[in-house]
Each structure stands twice: as C-alpha cells, then as structure tokens.
Amino acid sequence: MGTLLEHVIGRTSIVDEVITGGLDDGERLADLELVGCTIRDTSWAGATLAGVRFEGCTFERVDLSRVAWPDSILDGCTFTGCKALATSWAMLREPMLSPDPCTFVDCQLSMGSFAGLDLGAARFERCVLTDADFEDATLRGAVIDDSSLAGARFVRADLREADLRGARDYVIDVREARVSGLRVDHVGALGLLAPFGIDVE
After folding, report:
1. How far apart are alpha carbons 107 and 109 in whole angstroms?
2. Cα–Cα distance for residue pair 145/154, rounded to 1 Å
C-alpha cells in the first residue's frame, strides 16, 4: 500500500481514486490537486498539507488531528467519522471563486480553529465541537445539528440565518456576533441569554 507520499510522487493531479496511504507526523504534502477522491481509514495526524486542493472529495474515518492546511482549499468535501483534534482549519486559503460548502458527519472536531473562515452553508451533523474557535468566521446559513458546542467561541462571527436548533451546550454573546435570522430552539436560547446573567426557569 505504501505511504501517501510514495503514491503521489511525480503527480500534480489525482482524479477519482481511493486513497488509503498515510502521512506521518511532520510530513508535508504540497502542490497537489485531488478531485472526486475518497480518502479512507488512514491517519494524516500532525501532517502539513500545503497548497493542496480537494474538490468533491470524501474523507472517511481519517485522523486529521493537528493537521495544518496552509494555502489549501476544501471545495465541496464530505467528512464522515473523522477525528480532527486541535486542527488548524483557519489556515485554508480563500479561492477566487467561493467553494461549495463542506459537510461534517459524526466527526470529533474539538479544539479546532475555524477562525476567519467562510463556512457559509456548511453542515455539521452529530459532531463534537468542544472549545472550537469560530472567531471572525462566516457561518451564514450553516446548519449545526445534534452537535456539542461547549466552550466554542463566536466572537465577531457571522451567524445570520444559521440554524443551531439541533446544537447544544453553547453560549453566544449576541453583542459580539451577527445573529439576524439565527434559528435556535428553546434550550439553545438559554445560551444567548447567559451572557446577560438571565436565568430562565
């Protein structure tokens, strides 16, 4: 099977392939385009993905913990059953044309940094986002369903038209975020009142 670096040597583009090769902590994958690929059952924990474009790719049960994404692009990708602890998503590059939103299902994303990213219309289902950082992120129209946001930070985040009705454990100071059209359920509403010291019995 070999490592991922052995698999991609001399290639600049990979289309519609299943990839199971791993990346070791500290290894660097650079200047590569992957289109329609499925990456599954492997670990890239601690690796650096520099200038890599993932378009329409599916990640299944991949360990992306502590991965750095400098100047990389995720365009319409789906992550299922992945682990990405303390991952620097905030290093992703914003392309000239807005990418399609990504979907995260059954993922462990605690302590990840999404600061400053455009996550408009992204979808998080059954995810753990404990202590995630969404400072200055755009979550307009995003859906976070059946997911924990305990300790997550939303300073200056754009949450307009976002749907948090299935999210839980969050506290958002509406004085520090854009929340017009934000949808929450009655339990989540308590997280909007908490910064004001208001208790609802």
Report:
1. 6
2. 17
pTM attached to this predicted model: 0.91
CA distance 62 to 20: 9
How far is Cα 118 from Cα 138, in angstroms, rounded to an integer?
5
**Element of type H or E holding 188:** helix 186-193
What is the predicted pLDDT for the residue at 193? 64
126 and 149 in contact (C-beta within 8 Å)?
no
- With a pLDDT cut of 70, the percent of the chain lying above it is 93
For residue 4, the one-letter residue type is L
Distance CA 165, CA 162 (A): 9
Q: Report the alpha-carbon distance of residue 103 to residue 123 in Å, rounded.
A: 5
Q: Count CA atoms within 13 Å of residue 80 on its CB side.
A: 8
Q: Which residues pair with 80 in a beta bridge?
A: 60, 105
What's the token pair of residue 63? 């360990």
CA 199 to chain centre: 32
Residue 89 one-letter amino acid = W
As a residue count, the chain comes to 201
Secondary structure letter of residue 30 according to DSSP: E
Q: How far does Cα 139 stand from its chain's mean position?
A: 11
